[in-house]
Amino acid sequence: MRKVTLEMLINHPIVQKYVGRSGMEHAISVAEKAVDISADYHVSPDLAAKAGLLHDIGHYEWYQDGKWDFEKYKENDIHAIKGAARAHKLLVRLGENLPDAKEIALAILLHTDSYLPEGTLHLHPLQKLVAQADTADEEPSGGHHYRKIDFETARQRIILLDQKIDYLIKTTSSIQQLG
Ligand SMILES: [Fe+2]
Fold this sequence. Notes:
With 179 residues, the chain is mostly helical. 65% of the residues lie in helices and 2% in strands. The chain has one domain (6-178): Hypothetical protein af1432 (Orthogonal Bundle), CATH 1.10.3210. A hairpin with a 2-residue loop joins strand 1 and strand 2. Helix 4 crosses helix 8 (125-137) and helix 6 runs antiparallel to helix 7 (98-109). Residues 26, 55-56, 134 line the site of fe (ii) ion.
């Protein structure tokens, strides 16, 4: 049994406020893609979905005179750091177990290297997976952040994804038991 479901997350005002800001449709698409590729990475579909859904929860709005200021954003952005901390706090508050909350937070911290100093990181599978799912959903000029979705459609997609994760967890554990 999962302690925290995606539905609990999407119903939470913190998720609605901050993920709504960076694009709910994009977040759900990344969560869906993350689940689809979770088996390739031998990663839990539950962790993949949560990291995918929350990966951009740390975004700040870089508007100047009603326009997105890309220069300012590029220079000052720390959305991955903020997102990791925000997601961790929320997950723990909702009752997520601490090792899982940490893994999800680390995947959010490392889903982009755009804010990091030059260097080579050895990423873990969950961290690579979220970056791949995110990149696969990106549009030129950040268009993916502006796609619209109404709350009911968002909720329905999240409920379906929760069901898919439960099914994947159940079938994987029964295969393990047979083995
Ligand atoms: Fe993203």
